[in-house]
Amino acid sequence: MKEFQLITDAQGLGSTVDRLAREGIIALDTEASSFHRFRERVCLVQLSTREHTYLVDPLSVTDLDPLGVLLAEPGMEVVIHDADYDLRILAKHHGIRVENVFDTLVAAELLNEPEIGLAALLGKYQGLQIDKRFQKADWSKRPLPQPMLEYAAGDTSHLIALRDILREKLHSIGRWDWALEEFSLLTDAPFNLPTNDEPLFLRMKGAKMLKPHELAILQEVFAWREPIAEKQDRAAFMVLGNDVLLSIATDPPKGLSDLALRKGVGERIIERYGNDIMAAVRRGLDMPKEAWPRVPKPKRWPRDDDYEERFKRLKVKRDEITAKHDLRAGIVASNNLLTEIARSLPGDLIALSAIPGIRRYQVAHFGADLLTAL
Q: What is the pTM of this model?
């Protein structure tokens, strides 16, 4: 059984933060409600030193400012596995900035570990078997049962020891500076998120493959589902699955009996929402052609007959570099970065370093080789 202290009031949080402030390093993880609930919220914050673990309940302790002050200290190293989502929800819902991050997943990528999941890494380096049964549990329910709390405590209790191992390996092969650059980008990322004005229904997987008249139906059925999910505070797909919405859009049901035959549409859905769903379908079918939603066209580039060949040469060169240095392809250069290089045709390392998103270590270690491919 994992030992931990559950923090459910402001006084407990204050005393915990005071104890943690005497440490130079802590491990952190979060559990959120986004898989089960319409309204995303942080439901648990796990914090571990090398000896102790604390579970903070943000549904009881709503003011996490004392913790935020601690995590913003440059001298406090915060170890997280796959930090991107944790950093984003802490910033979004509590205004917390984590200043000094060590991401064990990023470290594993830089080391070209064959498996980068936390369970795999803890199994390889510490011989631990990790229980995964609560990965998709509803962390917003209260009270949280003891097994779920023990599971949550296990997420951070071994992270610092794993960090020690990965840090030493990064130093030994000369990639520590690469890691520091990646970690610093993680810190800033939640506060530099691009604005996404794309309608929510177009972000559904598969939506962009639909024709405009099918998108009209999808838009209306999606608009029916959203307020119901919000009122019930349930994840929208739990009201009616995304695959069902796509099926309705591409092959509109002719009536309730037809709708009832669809996979994923149960008797309860028909009884409660059948008429409303069919009304949404009819609104989509009746929508005038000029009002049909359309998928925005991708950016058009000037005609460049040699672009495809340059891109292929860059991929070949990247593959040579990855094989030579035992690296993941994305560490050398992602496909998006290769696209930018092929289109912008940098003439030297200075021009290459000006390409958005490129890392300093990529320019220094791989830049000259990549430029030869142009």
A: 0.91
Is 81 within a domain? yes
Whole-number pLDDT of residue 1: 46
* DSSP string for 188-240: HGGGSPPP--S-GGGGSTTGGGS-HHHHHHHHHHHHHHHHHHHHHT--HHHHS
Does 190 have pLDDT greater than 50? yes
Same domain as 252, residue 327: no
Domain that residue 283 falls in? 200-291
Q: Are 34 and 230 in contact (CB under 8 A)?
A: no
Q: H-type helices in the chain, by residue range?
A: 10-20, 65-71, 83-94, 104-110, 118-126, 146-154, 159-172, 176-188, 212-232, 236-239, 242-250, 256-260, 267-286, 307-325, 329-332, 335-344, 349-353, 360-372
What pLDDT, in 10s, does the model give residues 96-110? 999 999 999 999 999
Q: Give SS3 for 54.
A: strand
Nearest one of 313, 312, 308, 324 to 373, comparing CA atoms: 313
Residue 252 belongs to domain with CATH number:
1.10.150.80
Cα separation, 368 vs 374, in Å, equals 10
How many folded domains does the chain comprise?
3
Which tokens belong to 333?
């250069």
